[in-house]
Amino acid sequence: KTVSCADIIALTARDAVVATGGPSWSVPTGRRDGRISNKTEATNNIPPPTSNFTTLQRLFKNQGLNLKDLVLLSGAHTIGVSHCSSMNTRLYNFSTTVKQDPSLDSQYAANLKANKCKSLNDNSTILEMDP
Fold first, then answer.
1. How far apart are CA 122 and CA 17, in angstroms?
2. Checking DSSP bridges between strand 126-128 and strand 81-83, what pairing results, if any?
3. Are 91 and 107 in contact (CB under 8 A)?
4. CA 95 to CA 50: how far, in whole Å?
5. How far is CA 91 from CA 3, 84, 96, 114, in A?
6. Which of 33, 92, 113, 130, CA to CA, is 20 to 30 A from 6?
């Protein structure tokens, strides 16, 4: 039986959910990989990390996904690490009138500024997604 790269990604995603205490499910295999890869096509429908909730709802709906899908996929993306570059604008340069994003928990922001993302230009420090 054929196992494609797409199958391996689907199997790995399932195993990651199981490894973090989530449910298991059967993953059918036999998908066919494409012969070419186009970055633009692959990323056209992926919401940017700066999307707000309203934008995420709209983009998910455009793909035939619902609120439950949004919550599950968003939750899955809180596992692992990122870099300070994903938070620096919210910490140091949110708008022309406010330096720090007011919706960001102030204690969490102070902790990040003191211990992790010490400047707006820090693009390499690893930031745990679930500290």
1. 31
2. antiparallel
3. no
4. 14
5. 44, 10, 13, 11
6. 130
Q: How many CB atoms are closer than 10 A to CB 60?
A: 21
**Residues counted in the chain:** 131
- Tokens found for residue 21: 């205490």
Instruction: Count CB-CB contacts under 10 A for residue 23.
Output: 7
130 pLDDT more than 70: no
pTM score: 0.56
Residue 72 three-state SS: helix
For the chain, the farthest-separated pair of C-alpha atoms sits apart, in whole angstroms, at 59
Buried (b) or exposed (e) across 96-131, using 16+ Cβ within 10 A? eeeebbeeeeeeebeebbeebbeeeebeebebeeee
Distance CA 107, CA 51 (A): 23
Distance CA(90)–CA(45), nearest Å, equals: 24
